[in-house]
Write a structure and sequence with these properties.
Number of domains: 1
Shape: elongated
Structural class: mainly alpha
Helix content: 55-70%
Number of helices: 4
Strand content: 5-15%
Largest sheet: 2 strands, antiparallel
Radius of gyration: 33 Å
Order of helices and strands: HHHHEE
Distance between the termini: 149 Å
Strand order of the largest sheet: 1-2
Length: about 210
């Protein structure tokens, strides 16, 4: 005997493809890439700032070392200062003043461009000459550096804008380093100033 039993058909839910899924996937990929490139750019910028700061501190320490040497020579007993020593003091003082002035210009330029690697090398070389008391080579290198700084300043002058957080101060600092805006009849300028008192203090004359 043949039984006619009811047939049960298994029905599976139909999958409906959402047209928004590809758009969401693309957005996730774009956001992920954007986050990756942002982190990479931030890291590179932080490394650059660290490198510039380290180089600035190194040069400033070298300048301070030379200033200390100059001050020690100027404070020697007046009776022991012969013509040769006096000439050496004048050479150090003249070249040191030029180095400080050009270093200030280099710092100003660094505020406007990061293309200063060649200039940094020239300045470090001039300090090496000065430390070795090769005043002629130091002076020549500083003159070359000053010319190159002016050339670079001309390139960036048309696009430069002074940061708003830099204070306006026409008077130089009493001592140390200061970054400030200076207002003149020719316009407003951003300057970096290193102030140091190099005046020698005369020793008291003996009473005998």
């Amino acid at each position: 005997m043949k039984l006619n039993l009811p047939k049960n058909k298994l029905r599976f839910p139909k999958f409906r493809f959402d047209k928004h899924i590809p758009i969401i996937l693309i957005l996730l990929v774009v956001i992920g890439l954007g986050f990756y490139f942002f982190n990479t750019k931030t890291t590179s910028l932080q490394n650059l700032i660290t490198s510039i700061t380290s180089e600035k501190d190194k040069n400033l320490e070298e300048l301070q070392k030379i200033a200390k040497e100059l001050e020690d020579l100027k404070n020697q007993d007046q009776l022991k200062r012969n013509d040769e020593l006096q000439k050496e003091i004048q050479n150090i003082e003249k070249t040191y003043d030029k180095a400080v002035s050009i270093y200030e210009s280099l710092l100003d330029l660094k505020d406007n461009t990061n293309k200063t690697s060649e200039l940094d090398e020239l300045f470090s070389k001039s300090l090496s000459y000065l430390a070795d008391r090769d005043y002629s080579s130091a002076s020549t290198t500083l003159d070359t550096l000053a010319t190159k700084i002016k050339e670079e300043e001309v390139k960036v002058a048309s696009t430069f804008k002074i940061p708003e957080n830099v204070p306006v101060q026409n008077a130089p600092p009493g001592s140390g380093y200061s970054r400030q805006q200076v207002q003149t009849e020719a316009g407003t300028f951003l300057v970096n100033i290193i102030a140091a008192d190099l005046r020698s203090k005369p020793k008291p004359e003996p009473f005998w």
